[in-house]
Amino acid sequence: MTLPWVTLTAMAALAGAAGAAADPRPAVVELFTSQGCNSCPPADVLLGELAARRDVLALAFHVDYWDQLRWRDRFGLPQSVQRQSQYARRLGLASVYTPQILIDGRVDVLGSDRSRVLQLLKSPRSGAPVSARLQGHELVVAAGVVAGAVPCDVLVVSFQPEATTPIGRGENSGRTLREFNIVRSVTTLGTWRATAAEWRVALISLPADARSVAVLLQEQATGSIVGATTLPLPP
């Protein structure tokens, strides 16, 4: 859904920077996890290690379907469940599960399978040119020209870089979990159609506990992520 506080403006001036069609981009690692899942903490630790790498954009999507087991994950989002379910349909998976990692929206990996994840991250990546900057009280997202690119959703994912939570009940009762790059919202700004364009987002519309944003260009037909960048938010 495109929100009313987002405006779209064609930017012919960006066309001159369109040579970035082969710019390097970070690998996008999406972990679907839950504080109520006792097999998830090792995957959370791995995601924290990946979040420290400059060549990786790591995001933790907390699902809420574990909440029925006596512990409500304070970071659980219905949007996370919807996104994971969409990936399952696209990849032909029998069901969703935790911990699950998706790499670049293309490859499904058990979230605690460290060796497999690290192996998949070795390949260099190129991507569509996308940038984010702050201007006044707005976040400005811009994408450039890429000949032959297919339509992509332009997503802004706000996240909290780190949090520590004592767990009082459920499968992880008695543990204190340290979690990283915790997604707080996912917003679709519009569609990028391989031409220069700009979108603006009011900062006040983002969750108060978000400290950074990721911008993703994700192919509408396949779910593959072809562009990605991050930006810290002001206090």
Spell the H/E element sequence: EEEHEHEEHEEEEEEEE
For the biggest β-sheet, the strand order reads: 1-12-9-8
Form type: globular
Mean pLDDT equals 91
> What Rg is obtained from the alpha carbons, in whole angstroms?
18 Å
First-last Cα distance: 27 Å
Quickly describe the structure.
By secondary structure, the protein is mainly beta.
Q: What is the topology?
A:
Layout (H helix, E strand, L loop, with lengths): L6 E4 L12 E2 L2 E7 L7 H11 L4 E7 L15 H14 L8 E4 L3 E4 L3 H7 L5 E2 L2 E6 L2 E6 L8 E15 L9 E17 L4 E6 L9 E8 L5 E8 L3
Parallel strand pairs: 3-4
Antiparallel strand pairs: 1-12, 2-7, 3-5, 5-6, 8-9, 9-12, 10-11, 10-13, 13-14
Please provide a written account of the structure.
The protein has helices at 41-51, 78-91, 114-120, and strands at 7-10, 23-24, 27-33, 56-62, 100-103, 107-110, 126-127, 130-135, 138-143, 152-166, 176-192, 197-202, 212-219, 225-232. The protein has 235 residues and is mainly beta. The chain has one domain (7-232). Strands 1-12-9-8 form a four-stranded antiparallel beta sheet, with no helix packed on it. Strand 13 (212-219) and strand 14 form a beta hairpin. The longest helix has 14 residues, at 78-91. It is globular and about 50 Å long. 38% of the residues are buried.
